[in-house]
Amino acid sequence: MSVLVLISSVAGLAWVSAAVHAIMLVQHRRPDVTVGQLVFGGHRFFSAQTFTEAGKPIHRRFLISAGLFAIGVLAGMGVGALAAVSAP
Q1: Is 65 buried (19+), middle (13-18) or exposed (0-12) by CB count in 10 A?
Q2: Are the beta carbons of 77 and 8 closer than 8 angstroms?
Q3: d(Cα 34, Cα 77) in Å, to the nearest integer?
Q4: pLDDT tens figures, 50-88
Q5: Distance between CA 39 and CA 49 in Å, rounded?
Q6: Which run of H or of E encompasses 37?
Q7: How far is Cα 54 from Cα 41, in angstroms, rounded to an integer?
Q8: What are the residues facing 51 on neighbouring strands?
Q9: In this structure, is the dihedral angle defined by the CA atoms of residues 82, 17, 64 and 26, taken in order, positive or negative?
Q10: What pLDDT score does 41 carry?
Q11: Directed axis angle between helix 56-86 and helix 3-25, to 10°?
Q12: Which among 65, 66, 20, 64 has a CA at the least distance from the CA of 43?
């Protein structure tokens, strides 16, 4: 199995996990935060003040998943660049 396939798989799973946790977080938003604000202001998902105390564990898992996705994308770009440079 190639390293790029492995990294892509991990990044893909992390993205799915982040998406599922984001959907779960919608139920735990503060009363003054609308769904539209979450949808059109995606940065709000990264702020702990957007969610209630009951949503804190889900928010933590969302942040971990989003971070793993970002690391996977960057690692994939690095492996791809190295493969392109070392290609004959």
Answers
A1: buried
A2: no
A3: 36
A4: 999 999 999 999 999 999 999 999 999 999 898 889 877
A5: 16
A6: helix 35-40
A7: 22
A8: 29
A9: positive
A10: 86
A11: 160
A12: 66
Which pair of tokens denotes residue 64? 């971990």
Residues in the chain: 88
Q: Is the pLDDT of residue 1 over 80?
A: no
DSSP sequence for 45-70: GG-GGGB-GGGHHHHHHHHHHHHHHH
pLDDT digits (tens, 9 = 90+) for 26-45: 999 999 999 999 989 889 99
Both tokens assigned to 39: 């949808």
**Cα gap 18→73, rounded to integer Å:** 14
Residue 44 identity (one-letter amino acid): R
Tokens 């993205």 sit on residue: 15
